[in-house]
Write a structure and sequence with these properties.
single chain; about 300 residues
């Protein structure tokens, strides 16, 4: 299927305290995103640290998100894991709690074959009625959705597309060639947002937009309007912040940067740790270069 996501989508962080999820802070983050023009909120994806959360916490976050967002933005819930059975059950639960679509990461750690990838997504897609997005991030999972495999997955009726974060533009171009007109491609690497749009990507699933949703949306809109010079200028301006967001494992830098903007993003959960001081300065400088007053 095509046309599920367009525009900008923020891969939302989850604000934690020592005792659990800070829903007051999460509500403020949601409002910040909607005010910034974000089209879709991606909740409980990698940036949201769901692997460190209990099943109850994840359900509470989904319920709260749906109640708070309503119909003001599209909602995509992450439901992937390394177990097909668990992923199917989590996907059905997310659908029942009001997800517009699902983000399903490749099964990690098990390191399945390409046939295993296909069978995994077939099982998920057949269990739900809503659109499903594959998430390809081999640096984290050890599993890479190859172009020929994504071509097979594109034939599944409710396969919306692929969030591509493999980092290999040659592979990404080949995948786009094979799925064009069958399902969509979404950028999952902020530093490749503009190149992926240029080959036919339809949406940006962004970490940096946790901090600067207006600027990410402006870049997308400039490209969509055919103003490539402005889109390039905006992406050039964003690149130092994008780099700052990945000086350490995501979402460590993003959470630190949000706190610098006065957004209480909470603490990373172990085994993730706080951003180191040298990298905090990189983040401060990047935000200041974009004209933001840094609060910490």
């Amino acid at each position: 299927m095509t046309g599920f996501l367009t525009g900008t989508a923020t891969a939302m962080v989850t604000p934690f305290t020592e005792s659990g999820v800070d829903f007051n802070a999460f509500s403020r983050m949601i409002e910040y995103q909607i005010a910034g023009g974000t089209d879709t909120l991606v909740i409980l994806g990698t940036t949201g640290e769901p692997a460190t959360m209990s099943a109850l916490e994840r359900e509470e976050v989904m319920r709260f998100s749906k109640k708070t967002i309503g119909s003001r933005a599209r909602i995509v819930f992450g439901s992937g894991s390394n177990s097909t059975q668990n992923t199917v059950e989590a996907s059905k639960r997310a659908e029942s709690l009001g997800a517009d679509g699902l983000l399903v990461v490749t099964p990690y750690y098990n390191k399945c074959t390409q046939d295993g990838i296909v069978r995994h997504y077939e099982a998920v897609c057949s269990a739900v009625q809503i659109p499903v997005i594959c998430y390809n991030v081999p640096a984290r999972t050890g599993v890479n959705i190859l172009p020929a495999t994504m071509q097979r997955l594109a034939e599944i009726p409710n396969m919306a597309g692929i969030k591509e974060a493999c980092g290999n533009m040659e592979q990404i171009c080949e995948t786009m060639r094979r799925i064009r007109g069958k399902c969509d491609m979404y950028s999952g690497d902020d530093n490749l947002n503009l190149p992926i749009l240029a080959i036919g990507g339809t949406a940006l699933i962004s970490v940096a937009s946790n901090l600067v949703p207006k600027e990410v949306k402006a870049m997308y809109e400039a490209f969509a309007a055919g103003d490539l010079a402005r889109a390039n200028a905006l992406q050039d301006a964003l690149l130092p912040l994008i780099d700052a967001c990945f000086t350490e494992v995501n979402p460590i830098p993003a959470k630190a940067g949000m706190r610098m903007l006065g957004l209480d993003a909470g603490i990373p959960r172990l085994p993730l740790t706080e951003l180191s001081e040298p990298h905090k300065q990189v983040m401060r400088d990047a935000l200041a270069a974009l004209g933001y007053a840094v609060k910490a």
